[in-house]
């Protein structure tokens, strides 16, 4: 169902913003003391620093806890670092062929890490960015660096920036924000020796995204494409049964798509499972913006991915400049310039004033208004004219509780009516970058008010929020996949702290 937005002009909207600023400024001169204490306590509670706490996986039912290590590590030395906890788990070397893993377990990381919370008891790739920002706001620099060093370890020893450090995530990554983390930490602790040590990992990560099957040579952009086969172990069988039932009752759908490519008499097909793993790799698990359950994601150059890769390339330039590598800095700048040009050529839609995902097989953009349209503002890719066009859509996205993820109610959690901390973050700092200062403050304040309202009710911070009704109650609105609203919560904590500092700095 398409949600019809309330139409009013951007000018009227901005006037309203300016008058409303006084209403919330006093409330956000500082973080509410209870929330500040909750977040600080959460960093400790969500830190995983022993094998028993790390190994427990709320998503799976297992008969033993296993920690898998790369063969470059010495198992006995690792166990001796924490012998009491080590006795309660099994240690084993990771098979060279991940398909030979009979029992899933934890993938070893050398440093303690902060998990998101709830059912997510691992270090996640793109969650880590917002957690690291929060740790830096909390002056927990050692923890922030450990998180980054763990991700670099993954690239060195597992060959990929893991979706998260479980064996069933091998071959699957998440949106690339590593260089942003590296620079955020470096700005607080300018250690050039450490910065230089990150270069091989950055090169590996960039190569991952710019070579087949993720590169799309015809348009000079990239796509999500996960490895692995079959059902994802972390998802319920009920979900896949519901998906199969949906396809059987919807054999064809929209624009002549043949859904029978994704199921047959034996059940869901291999193509479906690749797409299913890939939509999870995108971080938007699950949304309907690539068709039902994300089944067409393999055919798209996504706005979010390519903007983040552009930013990685700019970051690569900055890192090499800091290190005095002029030739390499120019190479990274050239990559960024080319990607920005391709983004504006293929992903910008002049007729609608949106950045839209591009179906490179059909050679056309898909109209599906999504909050990732504001990512190019965050990265500085949009022209002034494009920014003005995007601003006209703000009333469709900015609701009572913050930025809504999309304007479509699909029954999936990465669509209407939900708002997530990362979407607020990119929108706020995109608006701020282009001079829409009061609107940026308003978005940040609305989301903080949502977090604060639900905290006062439940004493907790959540994974996501219904930003239409301004509520953390989500279970009855999600029809597919897990419907719980996890408590913690890593990235919401981090973005709340960043927004609090942003408001405090600009409203005093």
Automatic annotation (TrEMBL):
It is an enzyme of class 3 (hydrolase). Pfam families: Trehalase (PF01204). InterPro entries: 6-hairpin_glycosidase_sf, 6hp_glycosidase-like_sf, Glyco_hydro_37, Glyco_hydro_37_CS. The keyword Iron does not apply. Residues 1-25 form the signal peptide. Keywords: Glycosidase, Hydrolase, Signal. GO terms for molecular function: alpha,alpha-trehalase activity. GO terms for biological process: trehalose catabolic process. PROSITE patterns: TREHALASE_1 (PS00927), TREHALASE_2 (PS00928). Its EC number is 3.2.1.28. This is Alpha,alpha-trehalase. It comes from Legionella jordanis. The lineage of its organism: Bacteria, Pseudomonadati, Pseudomonadota, Gammaproteobacteria, Legionellales.
């Amino acid at each position: 169902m398409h949600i019809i937005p309330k139409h009013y002009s951007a000018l009227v909207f901005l006037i309203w913003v300016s008058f409303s600023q006084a209403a919330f400024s006093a409330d956000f001169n500082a973080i509410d003391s209870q929330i500040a204490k909750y977040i600080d306590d959460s960093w400790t509670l969500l830190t995983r620093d022993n094998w028993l706490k790390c190994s427990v996986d709320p998503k799976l039912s297992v008969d033993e806890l296993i920690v898998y290590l790369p063969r470059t590590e010495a198992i006995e030395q690792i166990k001796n670092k924490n012998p009491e906890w080590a006795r309660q788990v099994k240690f084993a070397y990771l098979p060279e062929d991940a398909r030979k893993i009979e029992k899933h377990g934890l993938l070893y990381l050398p440093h303690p890490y902060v998990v998101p919370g709830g059912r997510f008891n691992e270090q996640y790739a793109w969650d880590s960015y917002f957690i690291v920002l929060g740790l830096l706001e909390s002056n927990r620099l050692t923890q922030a660096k450990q998180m980054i060093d763990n991700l670099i370890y993954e690239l060195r020893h597992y060959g990929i920036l893991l979706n998260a450090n479980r064996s069933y995530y091998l071959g699957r990554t998440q949106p690339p924000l590593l260089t942003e983390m590296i620079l955020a930490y470096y700005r607080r602790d300018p250690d050039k020796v450490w910065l230089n040590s990150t270069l091989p990992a950055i090169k590996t990560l960039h190569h991952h995204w710019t070579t087949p099957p993720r590169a799309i040579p015809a348009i000079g952009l990239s796509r999500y494409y996960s490895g692995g086969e079959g059902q994802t172990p972390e998802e319920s069988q009920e979900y896949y049964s519901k998906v199969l039932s949906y396809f059987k009752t919807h054999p064809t759908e929209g624009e002549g798509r043949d859904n029978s490519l994704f199921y047959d008499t034996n059940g869901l097909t291999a193509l479906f499972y690749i797409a299913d793993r890939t939509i999870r790799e995108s971080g938007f698990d699950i949304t309907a913006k690539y068709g039902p359950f994300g089944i067409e994601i393999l055919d798209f150059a996504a706005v979010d991915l390519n903007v983040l890769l552009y930013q990685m390339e700019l970051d690569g330039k900055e890192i090499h400049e800091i290190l005095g590598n002029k030739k390499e800095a120019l190479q990274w700048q050239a990559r960024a310039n080319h990607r920005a040009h391709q983004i504006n050529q293929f992903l910008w839609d002049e007729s609608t004033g949106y950045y839209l995902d591009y179906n490179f097989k059909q050679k056309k953009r898909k109209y599906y208004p999504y909050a990732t349209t504001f990512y190019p503002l965050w990265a500085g890719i949009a022209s002034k004219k494009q920014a003005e066009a995007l601003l006209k859509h703000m009333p469709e996205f900015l609701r009572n509780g913050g930025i809504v993820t999309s304007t479509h109610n699909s029954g999936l959690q990465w669509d209407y009516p939900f708002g997530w901390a990362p979407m607020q973050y990119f929108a706020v700092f995109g608006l701020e970058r282009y001079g829409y200062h009061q609107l940026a403050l308003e978005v940040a304040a609305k989301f903080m008010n949502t977090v604060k309202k639900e905290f006062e009710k439940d004493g907790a911070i959540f994974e996501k929020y219904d930003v239409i009704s301004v509520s953390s109650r989500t279970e009855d609105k999600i029809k597919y996949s897990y419907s719980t609203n996890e408590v913690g919560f890593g990235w919401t904590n981090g973005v709340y702290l960043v927004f609090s500092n942003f408001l405090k700095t600009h409203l005093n």
